[in-house]
Amino acid sequence: EVQLVESGGGLVQAGGSLRLSCAASGFTFDEYTVGWFRQAPGKERVGVACAGLREGVIYYADPVKGRFTISTDKDKKTLYLQMDGLKPEDTAVYYCAVGYGLVVEPGRLGLNNLQRWGQGTQVTVSS
């Protein structure tokens, strides 16, 4: 069974940084596409950064380009999201996920054939 566990969220002032981690188990890591998503109160869950591990491609949502970086450690089966220059509008619950295939369209970034969500980790950015 695929399992994902996020960690690294917390409270930070505007302009600060956080690094989120997503530990994976129960699947062959390099067969999946992976991504980070976020959901603010009263809003839909949206893609932030997604990667195709087999193809070696990475995509970012426009609001986080230049500030967030997605990376992986295949040996540790861990997905990371480095967040720099945080803004209050980044406040949300952040989720990692795995699937098969990428969806990349104007204003939309996500995973096809989603297999599993993590439990989420809260990120709060104060002004």
Describe this structure in words.
A hairpin with a 4-residue loop joins strand 5 and strand 6. The chain has strands spanning 3-7, 10-13, 18-25, 33-39, 46-52, 57-60, 68-73, 78-83, 92-99, 102-105, 108-111, 116-117, 121-126. The strands form three sheets. Strands 2, 4, 5, 6, 9, 12 and 13 form a seven-stranded mixed β-sheet that branches. A four-stranded antiparallel β-sheet has the order 1-3-8-7, with no helix packed on it. Strands 10-11 form a two-stranded antiparallel sheet. The protein is mostly beta strands.
Draw up the topology in text.
Layout: E1 3-7, E2 10-13, E3 18-25, E4 33-39, E5 46-52, E6 57-60, E7 68-73, E8 78-83, E9 92-99, E10 102-105, E11 108-111, E12 116-117, E13 121-126
Parallel strand pairs: 2-13
Antiparallel strand pairs: 1-3, 3-8, 4-5, 4-9, 5-6, 7-8, 9-12, 9-13, 10-11
Mean pLDDT: 93
Strand coverage percent: over 45%
Tell me the span between the first and last alpha carbons.
41 Å
Helix content: under 10%
Order of helices and strands: EEEEEEEEEEEEE
Largest sheet: 7 strands, mixed
Structural class, by secondary structure, is mainly beta
Number of strands: 13
Taking pLDDT < 50 over at least 5 consecutive residues as the criterion, the unreliable ranges are none
Number of helices: 0
Q: Could you tell me the radius of gyration in angstroms?
A: 14 Å
* Shape assignment: globular
